[in-house]
Write a structure and sequence with these properties.
alpha/beta; Rossmann fold; seven-stranded parallel beta sheet; 14% strand; binds nicotinamide-adenine-dinucleotide
């Protein structure tokens, strides 16, 4: 198989939430494949540092910008800046999301549907869904000038309901038990709808759009939780943070040139059970 099938040489790829746990790995694989990662996150420091690091290690002209993807004016201004620097945009990875909180304040557990604050709903939807829409609207329209690839990072929980038994804490009454918040399911399912919409919207302009549904990543969770989650995954373990690089590269590169509107589960088989 030819190396060039997976090459992103000189392709400018915008990645949101690039300073996060997985965003860093998505950014790295773009650089490794010869692409030019444009790293967006809430604060400039971490993405500027990451851009320098990628530039040093892979010799690509990466850049990092502070862009709050819930603010359309910031996206528009950034789109103009990216175009001024590179002249084109070839890909977008809608990766940013709020990390769902499952904690309470001792008297009330705010993750539970009965207590879930409207402000948190609004904030989670604003980043995960509205942000992805706004990025598609602006960066996507630029990608449509010559074609390219949009990848929406959904989740295994965009395909199945969270198993709330996983989040139980012993000794708490039923109405205090933490759960995976409703917004996670809604945002991740919504991204699959956005994927199908975008896959058809600019198909005649050579823009493909696919969703990647990663399973949970091992990240210092307590051993009892790890054991419980792993028992629900045919491969018997959570993912390592670099294990989505192959799927992201596949969906961004011409290796997936006829893949459009697909929902790719990379979850160790969790949604197969
Ligand atoms: N980590 C997992 O186990 C897992 C599993 C399945 C899916 N996912 C999905 O993968 C993606 C990345 O997850 P992660 O674990 O790296 O999360 P993370 O919390 O480490 O990273 C998310 C990043 O998004 C940024 N962000 C938040 N709001 C923003 C805004 N308004 N504008 C710009 N950036 C903003 C944050 O600053 C952060 O750097 C998310 O969409 C997540 O839902 C993660």
């Amino acid at each position: 198989m030819s190396e060039s099938l997976f090459s992103l040489k000189d392709k400018v790829i915008v990645i949101t939430g690039a300073a996060g746990l997985l965003g860093r790995h998505h950014s790295e694989v773009v650089a490794r494949a010869g692409g030019v990662p444009v790293l967006l996150d809430l604060y400039a420091g971490p993405v500027e540092e990451l851009a320098k690091d990628l530039e040093r290690r892979y010799g690509v002209a990466a850049s990092g910008f502070a862009v709050d993807i819930t603010r359309e004016a910031e996206i528009e201004a950034n789109c103009t800046a990216v175009l001024a620097r590179y002249g084109h945009i070839d890909g977008l990875v809608n990766n940013a999301a709020n990390n769902p909180k499952v904690e309470g304040d001792g008297s009330k557990n705010f993750s539970r549907l009965e207590n879930f604050p409207l402000q948190v709903w609004d904030a989670d939807v604003a980043v995960g869904l509205t942000g992805a829409f706004l990025c598609a609207k602006h960066y996507g329209a630029v990608i449509a000038r010559q074609g390219g690839s949009i990848v929406n990072i959904s989740s295994d929980l965009g395909l199945i309901a969270p198993d709330q038994r996983l989040y139980r804490k012993s000794g708490l009454p039923e109405d205090q038990q933490p759960v995976k918040p409703v917004t996670y399911s809604v945002v991740k399912s919504g991204l699959i709808g956005l994927t199908r919409y975008l896959a058809t919207y600019w198909a005649d302009r050579g823009v493909r759009c696919n969703a990647l549904c990663p399973g949970g990543v091992e990240n210092n969770q307590d051993p009892a939780f790890l054991k419980e989650v792993s028992s629900r995954i045919p491969m018997g373990r959570m993912a390592q943070p670099d294990e989505y690089q192959g799927s992201v590269l596949f969906l961004l590169s011409s290796a997936s040139s006829y893949v459009n509107g697909a929902v790719l589960a990379a979850d160790g088989g969790r949604t197969t059970w």
